[in-house]
Amino acid sequence: MNLRQPNSNEATGTFNRSRSVAPMSGICTRCVDGCRGGCEIWLSTFRGREVLYPIGFGDMTAGADKNYPIDYSHLSIQGYAVGAEGLPKGVHPGPDTALFPVVDTETEYGWKKKVRMKLPIFTGALGSTEIARKNWEHFAAGAAISGITCVCGENVCGIDPGLELDKNGKVKKSPEMDRRIETYKKYHEGYGEILVQMNVEDTRFGVAEYVLNKHDLDTIELKWGQGAKNIGGEIKVNSLERALELKRRGYIVLPDPTLPENQAAFKDGAIKEFERHSRLGFVTREGFMKEVERLRKVGFRRVTLKTGAYSALELAMALRYCSDAKIDLLTIDGAPGGTGMSPWPMMCEWGIPSFYLHSLAYGFCEQMKKKKIRVPDIAFAGGFSTEDSVFKALAMGAPYVKAVCMGRGLMIPGMVGKNIGEWLKNNDLPKTVSRFGTTIEEIFVSYEDLKAKYGKEVKNIPTGAMGIYTFSQKFKAGLQQLMAGTRNFNLSLVDRKDIMALTEEASKVSGIPYVMDAYRKEAERILLK
User: Fold this and answer.
1) Contact between residue 346 and residue 66 where contact means Cβ atoms under 8 Å apart
2) 408-425 vs 130-146: helix crossing angle, rounded to 10
3) Contact by Cβ (8 Å): 301, 114
4) Global pTM?
5) Which CATH superfamily is domain 53-77+103-230+284-498 in?
6) Is-contact 243 274, C-beta < 8 A?
7) For the chain, what are the domain ranges?
8) SS in 3 state form for 93-162?
9) pLDDT digits (tens, 9 = 90+) for 253-278
């Protein structure tokens, strides 16, 4: 069984001419001299490194489609016909009290000072990609009114056209970062928070000090990596002047815009875009502990960490270092991940897939617990988009996992809602939308809820934010139904006993009981009593 067909994918704008393809190489079984295109080998012949990346930077997100041997679909959720745990104190469980709409979906994270969220999900890191920049007001406002955390990703200050540095090369002014933080704060209602993420360049630019002194943020997030790639973040720019500016700021820019031959190629139209890359981080225990201590001395009340689909060694490092440093939240992101521009081959073929990585993480947490080492609060990430998969992740990682980080799953409602607003302005509603109505009031099923809460201010809420809020209400109802079915009326009660493995291999990897073994002994006691 081949898990992925290489050499052609819609993400890179490539395809096979032949209906028959060699599984290992992805090359057409009959490769013809004179073929007019267009597999990746064919396109790479004259476009070179461009073919490493998904096409359409700034207008799309891409998610790798490798079909791993095991994923969360290999788990199923248990259902019970008796009981109701977690109802409010003094409420007697019964058909008239154990109603799914009363299920409490709130969660919290933090070492000492907790952050509460209305739902156990939060956005992925929305950083320097164009898709994040141009949709930020929709994403940030949507997260805020939904009561969840929003993560502002790496390199936002570093690529800000309005960036001003002081004589020491530190951020003095960043209008783009200001806009991002102020947008979230404008709609923030006490649930969730905005996390600003830092990589190597951000640390050098003094981003932490800037966002603390100017915006008095409680929390800062360090970043080791993510599930989509194990190199630094990247974007594309289509201007030679912009490429040169980013090069002067200290970024890796490819092709090198300072070389005359590359400038000539850009002028000729052969080079159409430049890539801006960040640097690889180098993690040591001493360096990590020093940086966390420094950030706390600067004034941050909470410090979090995002790490990616690295080896089991880096996973162990993250867990133990976070415990020793009293980190408030550790987000563990598995492969393959989604992206605004990560290299496509890396997305598909690098890193430990989410199911395996999360299974390892749980096992390591249990070992730490046995040694009486406190486990930091954890969030899982890597390919989640629906409430059922989030439930499974929370159950598999219980009691350590408090939330799930969702990337494209939360971006899409923001983009759809934004587009609906634009289509309405331009009198260009597609039939897929107009069948539900031709006004905002008719189209968004949550509009009147928001109007009741915000009054006239509802007209100022971005339509993308309405989209995220409406999606979050669907997510909440679906999660409440699943929790009620497992008789857990408080999110903190969701446990590994509430899921089962549908394949023996999934059971072996995760430690979750195989479906034919789950509750088998208890069932036989009833039968044979």
Assistant:
1) no
2) 100
3) no
4) 0.95
5) Aldolase class I (3.20.20.70)
6) yes
7) 53-77+103-230+284-498, 234-277, 499-528
8) CCCCCCCHHHCECCEEECCCCCEEECCCEEECEECCCHHHHHHHHHHHHHHHHHCCCEEECCCCCCCCCC
9) 999 999 999 999 999 999 999 999 99
